[in-house]
Design goal:
210 residues, 32% helix, six-stranded mixed β-sheet, two-stranded antiparallel ribbon, alpha/beta
Amino acid sequence: MHNHTSISSCCSRLSAEELIQAAIEKGLDGICVTEHAEMKGADAARTIGQRLHFPVFRGIEARTDLGDMLVYGWYDDIPDGVSLDELSTRVHDSGGVIFAAHPFYTRGGWNLYTAMEQQGYILHKDWNSLGILKKLTGFEIINGSVDRDTNVLARILASNLGKPGIAGSDAHSLSMVGKAATRFRVNIRTESELVEQLKSGHFEAVRLRY
């Protein structure tokens, strides 16, 4: 649910071909490419996936005023710094979904915890008074690139708010591919089916080990 390639994410060392091949070798049924800010990389990866007969679904990691968000079902570029309130309204009105990425990961990247802290809130204590969180579809409760305790805080936050949780490897290199995944109850063939299942909440966040 959360992967980057060097096409559109300067922080990634993975080509689209390398990402797809690694996913195939590790037995994944499909992957999402969620580049930072733009769709170019996800579009290219999907085309390569079609050639290799491997499902590649497009998403985008948007840098909002309240941290990084994973968006699915929205296929336009999203400029950095967009208001989360505005983005969540636009995404939901278009039929898409939005999940907070690595909400407590304070040692790398932009995150919900740090953004809220700058406004005088402690996320894991003040969650019930933060109305904006109720607009999210859910949270990334397992991120393959962060430590267990950080993921536990995300899981607790999602549970407190009654929101579903996804898992993603947040892969930027070969060794990171397939560290975490979201297990669905049904076989997903299209992006619209992916969004439908994300809305249903019928999935499980899992940490993978090989």
